[in-house]
Amino acid sequence: GAPTISIFLKPPGVIPPGGSTTICCICQRSYGSFVLYKGSRRLHTLEQSGSRAEFSISNATYKDRGTYNCHYLEGGTVLARSDELEVSVEELRLPRPDLSVLPGHEVTAGADVMFRCTSTRPSTGCYLYLEGQSRAQLLSREQGDYNLSHVQKGDSGRYSCQCYTINASREWSAVSNTLDLVVR
């Protein structure tokens, strides 16, 4: 079958001006090449090691904002395109929230876990990130809690959260501490 590509930011989250992050693309096949697009503009053939290619954004500016995706080519033919990855660059004015997980960061498969993102500022919302995923989970507004029931091996990984308020303009917090969830 045709290969698929995943695209994600490492570390995830809204990036402050001057900050840095890396766009990662992973394909199960490794003999081709990767090309990164921003909108319809071809940006780069990516630095590649095996089935993974990376593009670093350092000293981010508002020009780096936008929608990116990755194409995987073999012999000049595009075999796969990734989902779109939205990159946001905003001033991070709010203090960083604290991420915790109950019952603990090591659980057995099938257990229920709850992530709690605690912000000192009454925020309107927080996002939970799992490194390697292009989509974030919006946490419930009331507590900033996110319940994950019947966790599986695939839920293992590095989590973080980031909160925002809506006033005249949306204000963002820095990204929280990271937590590694291990599903046994």
Automatic annotation (TrEMBL):
It comes from the Eukaryota. SUPFAM superfamilies: Immunoglobulin. InterPro entries: Ig-like_dom (IPR007110), Ig-like_dom_sf (IPR036179), Ig-like_fold (IPR013783), Ig-like_Receptors_ImmuneReg (IPR050412), Ig_sub (IPR003599), Immunoglobulin_dom (IPR013151). Residues 3-88, 97-180 form the Ig-like domain. GO terms for biological process: cell surface receptor signaling pathway; immune response-regulating signaling pathway. Keywords: Disulfide bond, Immunoglobulin domain, Signal. It holds the Pfam family ig. This is IGSF1 protein. It comes from Nicator chloris.
